[in-house]
Amino acid sequence: MRRTQRTEVPASVMDEVEDAVALMARAHRQGEWEQSMTHSSLIPFLREETEELARIVDVIEHSVQTKAKDEGEQNVDAEAQGAEAKKITATDTAGSDGESQQDADNGTSSDDRGDVPQWLEQELCMELSDVLLQVLFHAEIANRRGAFDIGHVAGAFVAKLRSRAPYLFESVERQVPKTEQDRLWEEGKKREREEREKSLGADGPAYVELINAKDDVSEGAREHAGALAKQKTANSVQQSVASSSGESGLQAAENVIRDARKLGLSDSEIPMDIRYPLVGLEMDKPGEADRRLKDAVQNFREALKKIQN
Description:
Blueprint: H1 11-30, H2 32-36, H3 39-90, H4 97-111, H5 118-144, H6 150-164, H7 178-200, H8 204-245, H9 249-262, H10 272-275, H11 288-308
Helix pairs in contact: 1-5, 3-5, 7-8, 9-11
């Protein structure tokens, strides 16, 4: 009996999930390394996988923004051509209007697809699988000591949403304003804490201490995110200053990518370390990333000169 009103999960998806759970259990049975791991010893791997996921997301955002910028420049030139084309189209027979409109609509839909390269989507999928591995691993460690398994983890997720997002369990789907979402989430969160504290009895004070520590961590994370945003703004200003006295690595990369596309090269023909300079950034020493990127741009410019000649 389903506890939620929802569309059925495709069997193919359930098969993959079941395989992942079964393989994690088998790996723990057979692998000496897996058997030696604990929740604590896995934490560095979880942090590493989370950072790698964040880097891929940054690369995707950069890719989409770069494409949008290039398309914006192309649209400026295309507007004049479009106006002339409309004049020519207006002289066509009325019978072709429907077909022409359909072609235009199809073209628009096609242009709206494929903002992110397929290989980059696959990289995102792979990084998410690494994070999933960490969840499965921790759940299996707990399962081995008889505490809980991955089913209980999924059940805890459902229970949390039932408490904090009750509209997801209504028989009829509806659009929910963000203000209502925020209110329900905070109300559910507060209710859960109060009920949990009462149910724990003598362990209640320890639970309160844990929750307060988690809140401190969350606040610290928000402050860290704010600091990163300020640093990002400062970096943008520094790059603007650098562009007036000499190109930064990122600016040089954007310029050479634009030049390569004007020469008719596809993105796949542009070196990956120029298209996605953030990948591998953690391996560079301070100041090395910009130099490495500039060297890559210079080498590629030499190659472009040979193509032009």
